[in-house]
Amino acid sequence: MVAKIIDGHAVARQVRAQCRDISDSLKAGGVTPGLAVIIVGNDPASKVYVANKIKACSEVGLSSTVYAFEAGVEGAVVEAEIERLNADPTVHGILVQLPLPKHFDVRRVLGAISIDKDVDGFHLYNVGGLVLGDTVFPPCTPFGVQKMLEFENIRIEGQNVVVVGASNIVGKPMALMLMQQDATVCICHAKTRDLAQFTILADILVVAAGRPNLITKEMVRTGAVVIDVGINRLPDGRLVGDVDFEGVRQKASYITPVPGGVGPMTVTMLVYNTVHAAKRQADKLGKLGKLAGVKTGESVESLPKAYQAPVPA
Ligand code: NAD
C-alpha cells in the first residue's frame, strides 16, 4: 500500500475560498472582517509567523493590523491595548503572538481577550469549551487537522486515534476535538513507555512532538491515516516532520507531508476563525441577518456577565 498524500495547500485553498465568500458578503453589508495581532519583542520566528498571518488575511480580503511592543513592556500595557481592541467594533479577532517574554503572565494576557474575539482559541473559556464540545473558536492547528480529515472524508467515529504530543496548543485540544467526534482517543507524550505499543493500534495517528523521525514504519498499522504536525529544521537546513515520511508512506492509507501538510492549514484556520468572528458579531448586531449555509459558533450570551464579550455599540 502506498499512502495518498493529503495536500494541505489544496485543502487550505478550498477553505480560504469559503472564507472569501463570507468576507465578501460581510463587506457588502458594510463589515470588513478585521484581525489585530499583538507581538512583543524581536523573536525572528515570531516575526515570520506574524507576517504569514497578515499575508493570509490580505489574500482573503481581511483587514489586519500589527501592534508591536518592545520586549520590556509591562504586561499591564499590553492588557490595556487588548481592552481597547475588545471595544473596537472594526476589530473582530485578536491574537497575541506567543511566546511572550518571560516576565509576562501569559494566562492573564490571553484571558484579557474577549471570548468573541479569541480567534486563536487560547482563552480559558475556549479551552474549557473543548471539554464540553461548545468552544467558540477551536485552536487553529488541531482545527486545521480536523478540516483535512473532513476534506478527505475520513471517518472519525469509532476509530482508534493516537495523538503523540500533549501540548496545550496541539496535542491536548486535538485529542479532545476528536473525542467529541466519538473517536477512541489515546494521548502519548515524552514520558510514555514504549510508544510503539500505542501507535501500532492507531487507525488515525496524529503526531505533534517536535522530534524528527520519531515515527517509523514499524510503529504504524497498515492502512493507518498519519497526520504529521511536527516541524523540525535539520542541521543540513531541511524542514521535516516527526514521521519518517518515505518509510511510513509505504504502509499508511493517507499521510500529510512536511512542508505542505498541516502548516498551511494553521494560518488558514486563523483566517476562518476571524471571518466567523466577524460574522458572529455582525449577527449579534442584526446587521446582516443570517447568511445562508454559514454555521457560526455557539453563542456565549448565556454566560455570566464577566465572560461575555462586549458587543460594539
Ligand atoms: P511542545 O514542545 O509544546 O510539546 C511537545 C509534546 O510532545 C509534549 O507533550 C512532549 O511530551 C511530547 N514529546 C516530546 N518528545 C516525545 C517523544 N519522544 N515521544 C512522545 N512524545 C514526545 O510542542 P508543540 O507546540 O505541541 O509542537 C509540536 C510540534 O508541532 C513542533 O515540531 C512544532 O513546531 C509543530 N507545530 C506545527 C504547527 C503547524 O502549523 N504545522 C503548529 C504548531 C506546532
Produce a short descriptive summary.
This protein is an alpha/beta fold. It is 38% helix and 14% strand. Bound molecules: nicotinamide-adenine-dinucleotide.
Distance between the first and last residues' Cα: 58 Å
Q: How many beta-strand elements?
A: 11
* Small-molecule components bound: nicotinamide-adenine-dinucleotide
Order of helices and strands: EHEHEHEHHHEHEHEEEEHEH
What is the rounded Rg?
Answer: 20 Å
- Class per helix and strand makeup: alpha/beta
The main sheet orders its strands as 1-11-8-7-5-6
Helix content: 25-40%
Largest sheet: 6 strands, parallel
Supply the number of helical segments.
10
Low-confidence stretches: 289-313
Cα shape: globular
Q: CATH-wise, what's the superfamily of one domain?
A: NAD(P)-binding Rossmann-like Domain
Q: Can you tell me the CATH topology of one domain?
A: Rossmann fold
Based on the coordinates given, report the CATH architecture of one domain.
Answer: 3-Layer(aba) Sandwich
CATH class of one domain: Alpha Beta
Would you tell me the overall average pLDDT?
92
Strand content: 5-15%
